[in-house]
């Protein structure tokens, strides 16, 4: 569900941003607004980002090889990390640079009404894209807060699209405010101020995504509740306790579990094997993402 929902959100954002980018560039050529130029570059970056997210989903489906025995699931994390970098470099840095330039060398806007109309239409399209991302995210976030969902989600596409769309929507509002104030006051400096606001917003979102995607790319383990479930399923029957356990997501839907288990003393080897098999089965049923499980039986040497 997470993957299909993520794909739907990506496609909605891709279509919206591609159309918006063209409209914004036309608006910039007509008006000369730096806010419109910053938003145009932002939309081009977002459209490229959605293409990268789709590419990551595609390459992550490759089968495991001798060189990559655990598969290519982390491709989705890699391309999401690249998306965050692009959002920062092409979006935030360019917008801040253009805004400072506009404040230092203000120029009167021509046909500002065109910019306003384009921004209003773009806000409507971006609202649709953002609404799609929210709808698809609600299916998998459960009772978590939105911030917890962004921080804890192992599937990168929905958090990335969610934050991108939020940034795009608020960026359009900032651009509209900048153009509107420039028209109302007759001072084009406000257009530059709106552009800097867009850049700062994109910078905050990009840095947040870079931190989260870097953490996933390096390798994150199970959350507290999931780990508690795994340990609970392991410590049943002839398994007395978990001596130690390590988990790591090697892809959004693929969890690696490795544990050393203290077995009941005096068990025949066939009973040990059966207990291990049963423990694996219980974990897989309770945590479907636990696809790679390595369990090592041992004696509880803490007992006297």
UniProtKB/TrEMBL annotation:
Gene3D superfamilies: Cation efflux protein transmembrane domain
A Pfam family the protein falls into: Cation_efflux
Stretches assigned to coiled coil: none
Organism, scientific name: Prauserella oleivorans
Main location as per UniProt: membrane
Topology in membrane: Multi-pass membrane protein
The protein's name in its UniProt record: Cation diffusion facilitator family transporter
Taxonomy, superkingdom: Bacteria
KW Transport (keyword) present: yes
The entry's keywords: Membrane, Transmembrane, Transmembrane helix, Transport
Boundaries of every Cation efflux protein transmembrane domain copy: 10-217
């Amino acid at each position: 569900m997470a993957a299909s929902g993520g794909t739907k959100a990506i496609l909605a954002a891709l279509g919206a941003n591609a159309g918006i980018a063209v409209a914004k560039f036309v608006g910039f050529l007509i008006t000369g607004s730096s806010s419109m130029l910053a938003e145009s570059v932002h939309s081009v970056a977002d459209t490229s980002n959605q293409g990268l997210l789709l590419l990551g989903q595609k390459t992550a489906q490759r089968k495991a090889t001798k060189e990559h025995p655990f598969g290519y699931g982390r491709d989705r994390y890699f391309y999401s990390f690249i998306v965050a970098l692009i959002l920062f470099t092409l979006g935030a840095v360019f917008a801040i640079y253009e805004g400072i330039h506009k404040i230092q060398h203000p120029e009167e806007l021509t046909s500002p009404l065109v910019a306003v109309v384009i921004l209003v239409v773009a806000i409507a399209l971006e609202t649709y894209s953002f609404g799609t991302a929210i709808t698809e995210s609600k299916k998998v976030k459960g009772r978590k807060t939105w911030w917890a969902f962004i921080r804890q989600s192992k599937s990168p596409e929905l958090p990335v699209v969610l934050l991108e769309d939020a940034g795009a929507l608020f960026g359009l509002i900032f651009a509209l405010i900048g153009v509107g104030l420039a028209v109302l006051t007759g001072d084009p400096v406000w257009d530059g101020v709106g552009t800097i606001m867009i850049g700062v917003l994109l910078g905050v979102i990009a840095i947040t995504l870079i931190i989260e995607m870097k953490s996933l790319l390096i390798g994150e383990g199970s959350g507290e509740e999931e780990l508690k479930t795994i340990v609970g399923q392991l410590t049943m029957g002839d398994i007395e306790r978990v001596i130690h356990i390590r988990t790591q997501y090697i892809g959004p839907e693929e969890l690696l579990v490795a544990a050393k288990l203290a077995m009941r003393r005096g068990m025949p080897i066939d009973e040990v094997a059966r207990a291990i098999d049963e423990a694996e089965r219980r974990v897989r049923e309770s945590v479907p993402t636990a696809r790679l499980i390595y369990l090592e039986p041992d004696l509880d040497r803490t007992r006297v």
